[in-house]
Every structure is written in structure tokens, then in C-alpha cells.
């Protein structure tokens, strides 16, 4: 089921085009990453989809509700973490959570308090629940903002830089939470992030945008393959000999062999790694090679992202 539908979505601020004719769809339970440099239009896209600002052209639907004509309903069913936490700093953490729970229509007092307690405990904020938010660190404010976005248990989440300002342990907790919401609770997540590690670990699909335009959409694997073609195979040995190198070159699937004698390592390009790797390993062993490790080497999503952005800017 397609939960978010976007067609020709455009936003202009005077003569400046912040988002330029974006079209994409997000399926139920999917984590969809929106990646791009500063000023690419990511935050503006999220604000339009959440019904906070209206598009200049095109349309979007969230769970069948049209952004614009049904923006109030859209805001009821989404949880949103904006680029800035947007908390009331003169209020305590508990008062902030209570205020936003009421705003989202949580009227049952017991259920509301149970939900707030659950979230504050999960994010390690329970002991500070009665402290004013102005006294919180940036990371603590970020955690509270995420808790606020989740208070009404929305089926759709828009998260703009959810791990910004968090330490490695807290970042992992947030990633684990997003994975749980998607994979186990079937919630749909639009994740806007500069942290490519977050996108690589969490996203089913990613869209890279630049200057408001779609550069590419695909899975992280598809994006990596786009910049590298066929992945390479790396073989580490106790000792690299001429006979071993020639044995590797003799396999029909091998297109290129790079020998690193100093580190006793072969880097091999194959037309079909799945078929060719076992044959290469067999030939290397027959030639007297003692293998420590064999691994498939792909570029990281970060490498793919940087190359694609650079190509698009030319």
C-alpha cells in the first residue's frame, strides 16, 4: 500500500525555486531517506508533506488525505520532528509532553500519562521530567522533540535530522527505535538526514535531491552499484606469489587483477562475482595460496552520494 504519494511537487519563494517538480511514492512500513546538501530542499519538502506550508504546484497525499485541502487531517496522523526542536523552554519536559499530547487529542488522562512516562523513560529523560527544558543540553532537547513527535502513536513519521546533536549511544538508540517502528510496527518513516550511516542502516529506499530536484531514487545497493558497476572481490593471503596472481587471472569471469605484494592482497574485478568468486578461490588454493579472508567490496552509500552530487553539479 502506498502511504505517501507525491506528484510534481514544487515550492517557490518569490523567484527562488526551493523544490522543483519532485515525484515519488513511499510504501507502508518503509523507511524512505531524503538526502542532499544544505539548501537542497529537504526540509521544505517535509514541511509541505506535513501540511505546514502549501505547494506552489503539484500535489501530495498522506494515507489518502490531500495536502492542502485536508492538511488538518494530515497533521493528525503524522508525527513530525522539524530541523529545530521547537520546544517551550520555560516549561518542564513533562509540561511540554502534556501540552503536545493534548494538542494531538489524547484526552484520556491515564493513557496520556502512561504514554508520556513510557517515552520519557525510553529516552532517559524521566529523572529530568520536572526540569525546565531551557536547562537541557542540545542532545536532551532532541530526544524530547522525538518523544513529542511519537506521543500520539502516529502511523507516519517525518523526521528531519533525528540524530543531530546526539552522542553515539543515543544515536544508536534512535536508529533502533526507527527500525522498530518500521519493521515491527509497520509505521512509515520519511527520514531527512545528513548522516549517511543512518540512511545506509535504516532506509529501504533513498532519494538524493540537489537544488530542489531529484538526482536519483533507489535502494542503497542500487545507488552504490550505479557508481561502481560490478563490486570487486578482495582476497587476503599469507603470501602473494606470481603463481597465485596468474592462477587468479586464468579464471574466465575475471576482468582485472590488482596485486598488492606488500600487503599480500588481491583485488579482483569479476563480471559475475557470485559465479566467479568460488572459481578464483579454488584456483588460488591450487596454486598454493593460503587464504586468510575473502570479501566482497562495495563503495559506501556516502561514496555514492558524494559522487552523484558532484556529477549533478557539473
Q: How far is it from the N-terminal to the C-terminal residue, by CA?
A: 37 Å
Question: How are helices and strands ordered from N to C?
Answer: EEEHEEHEHHHEHEHEEHEHEEHEH
Spatial extent as radius of gyration: 24 Å
Second-tier CATH architecture of the largest domain: 3-Layer(aba) Sandwich
| Estimated structural class | alpha/beta
Task: Describe this entry's structure for a reader.
The protein has 314 residues and is of the alpha/beta class. It has two domains: 2-225, Rossmann fold (3-Layer(aba) Sandwich); 232-297, 2-Layer Sandwich (Alpha-Beta Plaits), CATH 3.30.70.100. It has eleven helices and 14 strands. α3 packs across α4, α8 packs across α11 and α9 packs antiparallel against α10 (273-286). It is elongated, with a radius of gyration of 24 Å. The model has no long low-confidence stretch (mean pLDDT 91).
Amino acid at each position: 500500500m502506498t502511504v505517501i504519494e507525491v506528484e510534481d511537487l514544487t515550492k517557490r519563494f518569490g523567484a527562488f525555486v526551493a523544490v522543483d517538480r519532485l515525484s515519488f511514492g513511499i510504501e507502508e512500513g518503509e523507511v524512505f531517506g531524503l538526502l542532499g546538501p544544505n539548501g537542497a530542499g529537504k526540509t521544505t519538502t517535509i514541511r509541505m508533506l506535513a501540511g505546514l506550508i502549501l505547494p506552489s504546484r503539484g500535489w501530495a497525499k498522506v494515507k489518502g488525505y490531500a495536502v492542502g485541502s485536508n492538511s488538518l487531517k494530515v497533521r493528525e496522523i503524522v508525527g513530525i520532528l522539524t530541523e529545530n526542536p521547537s520546544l517551550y523552554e520555560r516549561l518542564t519536559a513533562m509540561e511540554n509532553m502534556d501540552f503536545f499530547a493534548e494538542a494531538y487529542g489524547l484526552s484520556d488522562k491515564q493513557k496520556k500519562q502512561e504514554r508520556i512516562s513510557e517515552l520519557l523513560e525510553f529516552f532517559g529523560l524521566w529523572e529530568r521530567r520536572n526540569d525546565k527544558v531551557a536547562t537541557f543540553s542540545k542532545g536532551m532537547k532532541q530526544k524530547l522533540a522525538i518523544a513529542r513527535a511519537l506521543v500520539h502513536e502516529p502511523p507516519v513519521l517525518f523526521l528531519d535530522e533525528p540524530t543531530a546533536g546526539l552522542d553515539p549511544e543515543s544515536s544508536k538508540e534512535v536508529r533502533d527505535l526507527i527500525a522498530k517502528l518500521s519493521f515491527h510496527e509497520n509505521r512509515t518513516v520519511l527520514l531527512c538526514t545528513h548522516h549517511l550511516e543512518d540512511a545506509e542502516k535504516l532506509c529501504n529506499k533513498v532519494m538524493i535531491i540537489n537544488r530542489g530536484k531529484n538526482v536519483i531514487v533507489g535502494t542503497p545497493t542500487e545507488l552504490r552499484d550505479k557508481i561502481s558497476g560490478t563490486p570487486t572481490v578482495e582476497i587476503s593471503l599469507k603470501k602473494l606469489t606470481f603463481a597465485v596472481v596468474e592462477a587468479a587471472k586464468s579464471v574466465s569471469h575475471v576482468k582485472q587483477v590488482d596485486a598488492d605484494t606488500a600487503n599480500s592482497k588481491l583485488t579482483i574485478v569479476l563480471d559475475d562475482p557470485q559465479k566467479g568468486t568460488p572459481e578464483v578461490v579454488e584456483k588460488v588454493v591450487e596454486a598454493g595460496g593460503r587464504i586468510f579472508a575473502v570479501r566482497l567490496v562495495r563503495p559506501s552509500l556516502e561514496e555514492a552520494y558524494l559522487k552523484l552530487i558532484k556529477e549533478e553539479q557539473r
